[in-house]
Amino acid sequence: MKMKFFSLLFFLVFLSLLPFSQSGRYNALFNFGDSLSDTGNVVIAGLPYGMTYFGKATGRCSDGRLIIDFIAEGIGLPHLPPNTVANASFDQGANFAFIAATTLPFAFFHERNLSKGLWVNASIHEQIDRFQNLLPSICGSPQDCKDFLSGSLLVVGEFGGNDYSTGLFASRTIAEVSTFAPSVAAAIGEGIERLIGLGAVDLIVPALLPVGCFPLYLTLYNTSDSDDYGPRTGCMRRHNALSWYHNKLLRRQLDHLRLKYPAVSIRYADLYSQVFDFAVNPLKYGFRDGALRTCCGAPGSGRYNFNMRAKCDQNGSSVCPDPTTHVSWDGIHMTETAHRIIAAGWLHGPYLDPPF
């Protein structure tokens, strides 16, 4: 009886490790977003970015692969080429994400005297414009493209982080920055509806990260009031409340679109809960150095190993001995190990709603 149990257990583990592509479900993968998923549309740093997997900097804000890379591998497709690369083949997908991309257009920030922090004009609608312009070269006529997209997976986000940081880094209050959230969520909803109009029928829409758990924010907005921090995590409560509010509005948008387009699968990826659980239970995932300390940063710089004057790849910074023991790579982006765990939570459960 015991042998049968262990044989069944081995079989189930084996199944969980099989590539998701065994179903042959998708012919292409397309991605939209910001630095969490840019695979080379903006390249602003050198090694040690890319050191773990690629051995060189590729424009990915990590030591290795991103969530979108693991999603591509999991469904049996190649890593996505940036849409700005010349002479690339986009027959199996393309990446339209840009480092520092906001959800909203620059005009929104200009009206609020927040232009100083903007430098990549790649809002969600501009990324979708690029996608729409590229489609005919991949699949031909509008109807042919609808047929093609009916077998494609689209990942829309994460979006929103740069919209809020543009205000926060300009010393605007969280209360003021929170007023951006309805416009941000609405823009994401409108973007998804545009993609559905082009033929998309299967989309993943990630939540906003719990930004209060990242060393950059923990360092910049450090306070002496213990009530500002979660007792179990050490994360900043007010900044996580902003992320939570964004995600609440985003889910409302998705619920509305599901009712309007019942034949379309719109999957909510609960990135917030996943990363928050890293902070609650770091050892559960093998993060021996915890969830709040930066791997590539300034050694000895406070509790979080982060210093704005010695950021990753700058003079004064260094890399931890083992990135697999860290959630945070450079203070705001995650390690390849964290990305792998997150992608598994989407492909095999339980952080995708509805699941595959």
Structure characteristics:
356 residues, alpha/beta, 6-stranded mixed β-sheet, two-stranded antiparallel sheet, 12 helices, glycoprotein, hydrolase activity, acting on ester bonds
- Work out the count of structural domains: 1
CATH class: Alpha Beta
Low-confidence stretches: 1-23
Give the CATH topology: Rossmann fold
Briefly note the structural class of the backbone.
Answer: alpha/beta
Number of strands: 8
Overall pLDDT level:
92
CATH architecture: 3-Layer(aba) Sandwich
How far from one another are the termini?
32 Å
Rg calculated over all Cα atoms? 20 Å
As a percent range, the share of strand residues is 5-15%
Spatial order of the strands forming the largest sheet: 2-1-3-4-5-8
- Categorize the overall geometry: globular
* Biggest sheet layout: 6 strands, mixed
Element pattern in H and E: HEHEHHHEHHHEHHEHEEHE
What quaternary form is this?
A: single chain
The number of helical elements comes to 12
Q: Helix content range of the residues, please?
A: 25-40%
What is the gist of this entry?
It is built from twelve helices and eight strands. The protein has helices at 2-17, 67-74, 106-110, 124-139, 142-149, 161-168, 174-178, 181-198, 215-220, 237-260, 271-280, 336-347, and strands at 28-32, 93-95, 152-156, 202-206, 265-269, 296-297, 318-319, 352-353.
Description:
Strand 1, helix 2 and strand 2 form a beta-alpha-beta unit. The longest helix is centred in the last third of the chain and has 24 residues. It contains twelve helices and eight strands. Helix 8 runs parallel beside helix 10. It has 356 residues and is an alpha/beta fold. The protein has a single domain, classed as Rossmann fold.
